[in-house]
Amino acid sequence: MAALCRGSQRWKRIHCFHVFKRKFTGKHDYDLVVIGGGSGGLACSKEAAQLGQKVAVLDYVEPSAKGTKWGLGGTCVNVGCIPKKLMHQAALLGTAVKDAQKYGWQISGTVSHDWSTMAEAVQNYVKSLNWGHRVQLQDKKVTYLNLKGTLVDKHTIRGLSKAGKETILTAKNIVLATGGRPKYPSNVPGAVEHGITSDDIFWLKKSPGKTLVVGASYVALECAGFLTGIGLNTTVMVRSIALRGFDQQMAGLVTDYMESYGTRFEWKSVPTRVERLSSGALKVTWTNTQTGCEHSDTFDSVLWAVGRSPETKALGLDKVGVQISKETGKVIVGADESSSVPNIYAFGDIGEGRPELTPTAIKAGRLLAHRLAGRSSELMNYDNVATTVFTPLEYGCVGLSEVEAERRHGKDGIEVYHAFYKPLEFTVSQRDSSQCYIKVICEREGNQKILGLHFLGPNAGEVLQGFSLALQCGATYPQLTRTVGIHPTSAEELMKVNITKRSGLDPTVTGC
Ligand code: FAD
Ligand code: NDP
Q1: 40 in ligand 1 pocket by Cβ < 6 Å?
Q2: What is the pLDDT of residues 45-90, one digit of tens each?
Q3: What are the binding residues?
């Protein structure tokens, strides 16, 4: 598709031709145009092309407020899951080096961490993924356009290049998968000027140094965890509670472990201003909302992890009649990911009520491609999606929290089996296992169907994946305890839970 300048005679001729073609012949340039080449958009476009559809995907990255930019692949690849998990791994290796000496490794000299080596290696890997995505699109015959997409009408998209050139495309179906971007607080002077977000942290060339992380959910705790783990002085500022929406007993254990690991917490506190001192340091002032007292400290970096906004503002949705939620700005979608305009669909992080997770975006995108190609009517099942928070001690869960199970089934309608356990690898290295904990929440009556499963310990994501299959299959507590464990592992502790919370007995596991 040739680049065209909007308003030129040629643009008008072609634009009018497309409108004519659409109205009078029902033919379009593409069967499907996807706006957004992140986890969901790439999966949807590639799947649709495999099914014989003519597909184009538009992906465009607006640099962050600090000027950070990246390549094809969206949040997960560039500024999310991948660099985060690799930096988490860097932190885990630091702990492993300490453990190693107890296991006989002779490590001479002091062990220290070099940010630039880690960052460069992570950034190079991410760049290889950007390249890999381009190659895959080419192999699968998806047209990739590095353009910022806006809807012109319900079948027409205008793509704008970095240089300001416009391209007009028409499609039978349009899929919106533009994801989200981190927010800055609106009422804190100096926040944008002096702060960074998760869009910047993974691309820093120099260490962020002593860091204040504001926020207390996934992004905040994961970033604070790896920063602490690589040896940086790190403070988390919590406005209300940690990990809202998660089981709060588990959230408490996650932050207890982080505190013992070296992360500092300022509870019930909100920042009020950020100033740059002549020394170059950032002075942050905050209020403790419980005591009303004002405090301040200096930091090298302030990382805002106060939530994300959907990228829906620039899409021209109002012109076309695509409805969004007034509260969240996300697209209101049906079970089939359809928007209020019949041939326009939205999913992933911009779908109202959807989990903001990569695997759900990928699966939903693939299923949508099958439905659009007329190959299947299968809908995405958003129930019992497992997730893991990659904090220094990882927390994985699937299903309901204890409070939510109680709300749905009543306190007497559920049984909670729990255990504090010691991972074998913690023994020789004498690591504190006080927070290694498991909780299985079941219905109390009938066949004791499992409602929720929570695991805090090493490799929680790896442990939980298989159990999420069990929950999808409707697993019950007797089936869990009939399953033979793999010894010696932490995962086997899940098969052995037998102490109920109701009994009040000590749930500490002793012996094998
Ligand atoms: P995105 O991946 O955000 O892709 C959207 C793409 O569309 C982007 O490339 C964007 O630049 C582009 N775009 C936006 N507007 C336009 C436009 N108008 N025209 C063209 N292109 C446009 N999830 C997990 O499952 N596990 C994790 O461990 C995990 N860790 C995370 C860590 C962090 C720090 C963050 C921020 C997120 C993490 N997530 C994780 C969440 C995960 O990254 C997102 O849920 C996922 O990327 C959403 O996919 P998406 O396709 O909806 O959007
Ligand atoms: P969330 O919306 O989950 O959390 C925002 C946090 O910031 C909350 O702790 C909130 O506190 C706090 N906050 C909001 N505004 C302010 C403010 N003005 N001042 C101080 N604190 C404030 O956002 P995240 O960015 O952490 O995560 C977004 C999504 O990304 C997650 O829901 C998750 O789906 C996905 N993700 C997944 C990961 C994984 O799978 N491992 C990792 C990272 C992200 P309060 O509770 O008081 O509102």
Answers
A1: yes
A2: 999 999 999 999 999 999 999 999 999 999 999 999 999 999 999 9
A3: 85, 149, 215-222, 307, 349
CATH superfamily membership of 9-62+138-182+309-372: FAD/NAD(P)-binding domain (3.50.50.60)
- Pocket flag, ligand 1, residue 217 (CB < 6 Å): no
CA angle 55, 58, 61 (to 5 degrees): 160
- Cα(244) to ligand 2 centroid in Å equals 8
Binned at pLDDT 50, 70 and 90, residue 511 comes out as: confident
Domain 387-500 in this protein, CATH class: alpha beta
- Relative to the CA of 349, which ligand 1 atom is closest? 52
Q: What angle do CA 141, 145, 147 make, to 5 degrees?
A: 160
Catalytic residues, by residue number, are 487
Task: Give span(s): CATH 3.50.50.60, the chain.
Answer: 9-62+138-182+309-372, 191-306
Residues with Cβ within 8 Å of 277's Cβ and at least 6 positions away in sequence, in order, are 283, 298
pTM value? Answer: 0.94
Q: Which of 204, 201, 261 is nearest to 233 (CA)?
A: 261
Q: Is 84 in the pocket of ligand 1 (CB under 6 A)?
A: yes
